[in-house]
Specification:
By secondary structure, this protein is α+β, with helices and mostly antiparallel strands. It has a single domain, classed as Uncharacterised protein PF12112 family, DUF3579 (Alpha-Beta Plaits), CATH 3.30.70.2340. The protein is 29% helix and 30% strand. The chain has a 5-stranded antiparallel sheet with strand order 4-5-1-6-7, covered by helices on one side. Strands 2-3 form a two-stranded antiparallel ribbon. Strand 2 and strand 3 form a beta hairpin. The radius of gyration is 14 Å and the shape is globular. It starts with a helix and ends with a strand.
């Protein structure tokens, strides 16, 4: 069982700041992530994943990730966590505390 599962965390926030405190570029990274996980519905309209939600917290672009993504799309979740690690992005819990990526 992971630390997030033990603590009951069901959502993480990926902050658009690196661990060094610098803004992450490109500035539209949240939109790009959301569109990567989008799919077309029966009405042929693009639908964003219900597990990824763009947020702005204290003026910083962020991506809220429902950890159900880990169950519904394990490969996609792993790719997202690799992106976070590779780019040294901050990960926060729902209370705004810095945590390690699940």
């Amino acid at each position: 069982m992971s630390t997030t599962e033990k603590s009951g965390i069901n959502e993480i926030i990926i902050q658009g700041l690196t661990r060094a405190g610098k803004p992450f570029r490109p500035s539209d990274w949240v939109d790009r992530m959301c569109s990567t996980y989008a799919s077309f519905g029966a009405d042929r309209k693009l639908r964003y994943s219900p597990y990824l939600k763009p947020r702005v917290i204290e003026g910083v672009r962020c991506l809220a990730v429902d950890l159900k993504l880990k169950d519904t799309n394990p490969e996609g979740f792993n790719q997202l966590m690799h992106f976070v690690d590779e780019n040294q992005l901050n990960v926060l819990d729902a209370d705004g505390n810095s945590i390690s990526a699940p």
